[in-house]
Amino acid sequence: MSKILMEFRNTNSAITDHHKGRIMQQVKIQDSNAKIKVTTVKPKKYASELLDRYSLAKYDLCPNFAFPDELSGLIPTNTPAFVDGGDHYLQRLMRSLLIFKQCALIGASGTGKTHSAYLVAEMAGLPLWEVNCSVQTSVYDLFGRYIGLGKENWVDGQIVSWARHGGLLCLDEANMMKPDIATRLNSLLDPRGHLVLTEKDNEVIQRHQHAYVIMSMNPFSNEFVGAKQLNISLRRRMNVWINFDYLSVGKAINSEEVLLVQEATNVNEDTAKRIVHVGAELRRRYKEGDLSYAPSVGDLINWGKIICYGDSPQSAAEDTIIAVTSDRIEVQEIVREVVGMFFDNELLRP
Fold first, then answer.
1. Same structural domain for residues 129 and 111?
2. Are 200 and 82 within one domain?
3. DSSP state of 31
4. Which residues contact 52 (CB under 8 A, 6 or more apart)?
């Protein structure tokens, strides 16, 4: 019977080189014919059934790699179902990240850009580092700073943490980003990305091999205060741009959106269809410039949930779909009239 004379094995935290994704080995030397037995110890790979549900199993963003346990809390869970209306947003997004490691999403509020980023992170098992690029976001928040006196206590910012440890960096409202932040991202978004941390004695941080980027933004227009044209240097580094749109607009009603509203709220099919018709008409008017906001699927679901508590559709609309569109009385009246188009009549208008 063979007896193990010596065993070399790494600890659980060192099974994987987290910066290179290597699979380490467990070596056992046995006295049976003086042979060396080498056993490969694979990291515990995150596996999500969502990849199969959305038929995206071939887009494995982290093959043979596992993130350390301390980052597992950053991986999203229980992300609501995503319906893309036949535009294959998730597939295009996963493909872009697999090939280029970064992608830009552009579309009006409520079209599912951030939602899709959360779902991709959950499917791929990626820690999510979410940053809102509003004008209030400082360089220190994103890159880090020393805490207290001296240089003993350095705290990494969101972007530095992402560059060191990997995962999915979601830059929301990217076209509101301050110029000094955008400039520093350029080197990180190059093929051999790196960051010179000037705040910390010019430390050079190489971008983790499993560090992915999604930039999410609304179209540049006057209605989004603070939005501006994206810096051309930053723009050309985003290899793929995916335009997101609403599921239902005008008379083009998506049956999957109706089903989604019905299942999420427990309203009957007829009511769900009327809710989606209202949303589609408001979105049409938004696209034509008559409204400054169009309802998302979530807004429609909120409306339906209050209906299920016994309120009439008109009454429930006051606290949800009407109030969320605008504070202006004249705009609210327009929305109120649209609600009446589909709920004040016995039969749904074509």
1. yes
2. yes
3. S
4. none
Integer CA distances (angstroms), 144 to 25, 72, 147, 187, in order: 35, 22, 9, 17
Strands 211-217 and 167-172: parallel
Q: Is the dihedral of CA 260, 264, 265, 266 positive or negative?
A: positive
Identify which has the larger pLDDT, 97 or 139. 97
* Strand pairing report for 4-8 and 25-30: antiparallel
Tell me the three state secondary structure of residue 243. Answer: strand
CATH number, residue 118: 3.40.50.300
**15 and 106 assigned to the same domain:** no
Is 95 part of a structural domain of the chain? yes
Residue 168's domain comprises 50-243
Of 68-72, 192-196, 211-215, give the range with the top mean pLDDT.
211-215
Mean per-residue pLDDT, 248-266: 94
- Please tell me the pTM assigned to this model: 0.79
Q: What is the pLDDT of residue 47?
A: 67
Hey, which residues does 197 pair with through a beta bridge? 203
Residue 9 has pLDDT above 60, yes or no: no
DSSP string spanning 255-320? HHHHHHHHHHH---HHHHHHHHHHHHHHHHHHHTTS-S----HHHHHHHHHHHHTT--HHHHHIII
Question: Which backbone phi and psi does 50 adopt, to 5 degrees?
Answer: -65, -30
Give 53-99 pLDDT, tens digit per residue: 889 989 999 888 889 889 989 999 999 888 888 899 999 999 999 99
Kindly state whether residues 153 and 293 are assigned to the same domain. Answer: no
What single letter denotes the amino acid at residue 240?
V
Q: Give dist(CA 180, CA 225) in Å, integer.
A: 19
Q: How many CA atoms lie within 13 A of 210 on its CB side?
A: 24
DSSP 260-273: HHHHHH---HHHHH
Q: How far is it, in rounded angstroms, from Cα 13 to Cα 69?
A: 8
Domain count, the chain: 3
Are residue 197 and residue 136 in the same domain, yes or no? yes
